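User: Here's a chain of 139 residues. Predict its fold as tokens.
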Amino acid sequence: MSISTAKAKWNGELKSGSGVMSFTGYEGPFTFASRFEDGKETNPEELVGAANAGCFSMFLSALLGKEMIVPTSIETTATVTLGTVDGGPQITGIELNCVANIPGISDEKFQELAKSAKSQCPISKLFAGTTITLVAKLV
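Assistant: Prediction complete.
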């Protein structure tokens, strides 16, 4: 079992307040503007995206390892959409865009393993009620 901890502190009311999120080696501010407008700070959805992208990349590497294939690189970008459902904010979709350099694998096998990684990685499972799409490109 592995246990991870992250922390967030919010000060003040929603629109004019501000907060700080922190976890191992990172501490970053977040605000209403960074979440719902065009603020420069981070936001919870950005961190959800980082978690999903990292989890997917690691899981894909693990699946490749089971096939005795060693990737040179797996780079995944997660785009998280925060929409409105029933009058309130909700993550309505996540798109994983993966570009991988994996010598010795066919695109067909790569697509199969990428699809499996998307559905099986723990963070994707956490968001099972959210539509997660995948665009996977082998270079």
